[in-house]
Amino acid sequence: FFLHQISILTSRTLSSRSEPAGKLHVLPQPRLSSTATPKLCGHVHSENNKAGMRSFLAVVAVSASATAFVVPARRHALTRRAAHDDGDTITQLIDAKEAELADADAVTTTKTTTTMPNYVEQANYFDGDRPAPAWELAQTNFLKQGATILGQVAESIGLQKRDPGAVPASLGLVLSNEAVTEAERKREASGGRVDAHPVSRKLYDVGCLFLDTLFDERPIQRFWFLEVIARIPYFSYVSMLHLYESFGWWRGPELRKVHNAEEWNELHHLLIMEALGGNSLWSDRFLGYHVAIGYYWILNVVFFFSPRIAYQFMELLEAHAVDTYGTFVVQNRERLAELPAPAVATSYYSSGDLYLFDDFQVSTPPETRRPDCATLLDVFTNIAIDEGEHVKTMQACQDYARIGARVVSPHMDGAHAAESREKWVRWAAEVNEAAKH
Known about the structure:
Elements: H1 2-15, H2 47-67, H3 87-108, H4 134-156, H5 177-192, H6 198-214, H7 219-246, H8 253-275, H9 282-305, H10 307-331, H11 333-338, H12 343-351, H13 355-359, H14 376-403, H15 415-436
Helix pairs in contact: 1-2, 2-4, 3-5, 3-14, 5-10, 7-8, 7-9, 7-10, 9-10, 10-14
């Protein structure tokens, strides 16, 4: 069926009037135009040539889609020291990283370019016209996504030229896998190692190898993929909390509120990466969406048996995000300071409704963090600090699951802080007493 669809698309393209190859514009995703099939270069002089080219592209398309994600394994230089630490040590390291990024950012945020990059601006947060039936949405999405496969294949084999002004390639940004690994090694050697379950640690290492291999020298695409995945745990946590409440087992509306605010934050990270062209390739979108679905159901099972381990795994990922974004800011500081912030970033950090922005930062009083957002340097510095705040929230959620130290919106009064501290002290005393025997 897939081969038949590709043949039809190719036949229609080749039978149309031949035109010079134009620029392939990055479309807002996932609002893809159904007429976005690119025009191919050259002239077709005979029916035999048409048939030959049609068969050739069909085979190439199928082969490319089948092998797009088969990447050779390579050695991953991870040198981690096994060092046990408590949550306070990790929090101190995150605080230090946030202060370092904020101080350095204040020096270089005044330098901006006069030329606006070709950002892919989103008109709104909606990806469709209405909440239609599932089968209708699936069919529409299949047609829209399928129409972009030929464009990617044509570019990969040289039949369609890439637009040199399209993002993210035109931004000139880099990220070294080795530098990210070194940043992580230093954090863990300094006492910032997350005390994760061995299975969680192994899955994490495999994920890092996968990211380093598939997204090597493609930082914005890597960030887009990470932000697609980063939203999934909060979907899962809220789903499981709804399940608990529906069964009458346990009710935690304030915790759900915090998780909703966390997902809102990750959504805007995702929208920022889409504005920078991070989802321009069909293969990246295909992989990201399918991995996200599988990840969601796995986390549901993990949360069902141990909410603490589910939160712990997310702490592991968020700590890695701090290392990744922090390294990216260091390596691209001058270039980022030259580029203006996309509109979606300015809206979220400066001019929009900031209630939910405050709500996910359970360790920060409301209305005390109002970051600058004039350049991409501001944007990525803010994202790195956001990820540090997620680390602290995940630590607090683990304490909630372990000893009952409540996690609530920072907009509530401070009475819960004394209650949580009292429970923590009582739990520590019980552990110390048990250790004597």
